[in-house]
Amino acid sequence: MKSKIKENAMVSPYFLFFLIHASQTGIGVLKFQSQIIKGAGQDAWISVLAVGLSLQIIFLMMLHILRNSSRGDLVSFHTDIFGKVAGGFMNIIAAIYFFLIGLVAVQSYIDILQIWVFDGIGSWEFALLICICIYYINSGGFRFVAGIAFWGVIIPSFLLLMFVYLFKFAHITYIMPFFTHRFEEYMISAKESGFMFLGFETMLVYFPFIKNGMKAKKWGQLGLLYTTFLYLIITILTFTYFTQAKLHHLAWPTLTMIKIIRIPFLERFEIIFIFTWLLVIIPAFCTYLWSSVRIVKLTFTRLKPTFILFIFVGSYFLFSSNAEDILIKQILETAVRYVGLCFIYGYIPLLFILSLVKSMIGKRKSDKNQNEAV
User: Fold this and answer.
1) Residue 299 in contact with residue 144, Cβ under 8 Å?
2) What's the mean per-residue pLDDT of the chain?
3) How far is CA 96 from CA 93, 316, 365, in A?
């Protein structure tokens, strides 16, 4: 049986578009270009496109998994397949995974604020402000999180108009000739670009809160396509703006491009961009945290969601306030990057295979019962 979520706690199907895109768009937009160029060079945009399109297949696998779970989410599927004890253990691993993605995102945004805007303000002050916002939004429930995701996509979309201004400085010769690299080099770029697409797998947790979930498939696919299109445009623009030699030495290529924009009454437009980008990444923070809290709540039913949320937000604050070692941050980000890729391209296909086996066994039992009844 599917879990009965109250209708007043659910959102319309089209919100799946905003939830998926908001969970994928984060700090990676500001710095991914210098990473993906390591493999296929100027052809790395092909890897970005390939990864984005491959997620359409992963998305269909996720829908099949959810369709064959007893309550329509990852938590119940783990319990159905692995049993209560082993399934509970897998649920905790998933909760830790979503928790760590959110932690890395929070820490990365604090680093941007300290490097580009306020280098004299301590990490704990930024962490406190962000954690208060996250706690307030998540305590309002899933509908509140979905509403923030909606505005987190709509309002910052106007910032994309500035890329039209940057195209007049583009040099198409910087990305030519095309298709000049080996398959292994395209795979390296694909591996590096996979991190910026993480986040949409949270759908495995919040999907029961989508009205007529299985009919919302088109909205989820459109969300993935929009994210792919956005990353593809930014990649091509960056590759035609910077030479490969210069791009290798830039930590924040997107922000470096934006610095060229000049407004008569504003000297540094990138500052406005950074603060407006908070509207983009707050939904991602909240979706990761809500998913991890939801998993723990369903696994340990005696724990109150407010208590779990408080503990998780407090952990975010403590780590972000005291994480001064750059090496530790890099190790954590690298670990989350590879675990995320394994989750998307390894664990989800594995669960898909298990769901196929489960559906086949269920169909055989149903056919057998019908034959016996006849």
Assistant:
1) no
2) 86
3) 5, 12, 36
